[in-house]
Known about the structure:
- Helix content is about 45%, strand content about 15%.
- It has helices at about 15-25, 40-50, 65-80, 105-130, 155-175, 200-205, 215-225, 245, and strands spanning about 5-10, 30-35, 55-60, 85-90, 135-140, 180-185, 235-240.
- Strand 5, helix 5 (about 155-175) and strand 6 form a beta-alpha-beta unit.
Amino acid sequence: MMLKEKVAIVTGAGQGIGLAICKKLAKAGAKVIVNDLDEALATKAAEEITASGGVCLPVPGDSSDLSIIHQLVETAASHFGRLDIVVANAGITLFGDFFAYRPDDFFRVLQVNLGGTFFLAQAAANQMKMQESGGTLLFMSSVTGHQAHKNLAAYGMTKAAIEMLAKNLVIELSPFRINVNAIAPGATATERTLEDPAYTKTWSRITPMGRPASVEDIAATALFLVSDEARHITGQSLVVDGGWTSVSPSPY
Length: 252
């Protein structure tokens, strides 16, 4: 119960990596607020975690919407009296040829991936600052923020920017004992990626460790980075990709 009495928010957590992180945090004793754009997924995730003995509340909605962001933080404060951990996991991937990429897609990717992360961090840090007990922020980057990937110029740009945000916020947050880090997952087997029947075979072939990550691989990393075991780690980005960025063979 390494997170006993801690209160956490995880966005984009109705399934995949976000849900796996919620389960890890709840199992470690945290009270978890689960957010997802899809209300049914958020509700189902909260019910599943509660049925397993965890404490979980759903707050569905667009995590890049300022009203939803403030609702998340206010729910933590009003229901549980505090906020200790925030995992800004929500993000969207809109593939597209650079030469024809649409402005609507470009600004939506920026709004969700960058705006959602930035303003959730801002609202959460203000709550943590007021509590005077510190806290931890964790952002979700990607290996596409480190290595070029076909048709993901806008997405990769946002993920590189998220890592710079984590580094920059060290200046702002350290005086209040708030640490901030990022995880950069590589290929990960999720409901979405496994819609491609060739996904596991392709990424197993080109990943040095012989398989794509599982959601549990990423969740285990998140659990460490938000725990007290990582209190002196801040401004860092941890790549979890089975070695892919060391060699970077194309999946195409």
